[in-house]
Q: What sequence folds into this?
């Protein structure tokens, strides 16, 4: 019985090693295709993001910057900032300290390029 457990444990460890070796972590994206919850630094990069806005003005675009991912992410204690808007385009700055970003009915998002350096103090 002990030998079979060791065999199973060894096979499991080998599988983890093989599969772990072949599954490389993907780079965070600079686009979000649409609705969803995106982890900052894992799924997406921080920065200023823009979406065209809601394709359905009756419902509006809803986004949330989160410091904690839990449940359905409607707990106001977990939301850093949020907006519900029918305006276009929609822009938000996702910070490196944010844990996640949730978007609903905003359309696809894209990361905007950083503004050019001015050479002035702080820029």
A:
């Amino acid at each position: 019985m002990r030998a079979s457990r060791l065999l199973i444990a060894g096979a499991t460890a080998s599988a983890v090693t093989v599969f772990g070796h072949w599954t490389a972590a993907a780079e965070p994206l600079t686009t979000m295709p649409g609705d969803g919850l995106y982890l900052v630094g894992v799924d997406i990069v921080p920065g200023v993001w823009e979406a065209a806005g809601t394709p359905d003005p009756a419902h509006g675009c809803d986004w949330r910057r989160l410091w904690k991912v839990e449940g359905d992410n409607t707990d106001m204690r977990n939301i850093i900032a949020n907006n519900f808007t029918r305006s276009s385009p929609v822009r938000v700055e996702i910070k490196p300290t944010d844990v996640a970003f949730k978007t609903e009915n905003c359309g696809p998002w894209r990361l905007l390029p950083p503004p050019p350096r001015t050479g002035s103090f702080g820029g």
About this structure: Confidence is low (pLDDT under 50) at residues 1-24. The two ends are 68 Å apart (CA to CA). The chain has one helix and eight strands.
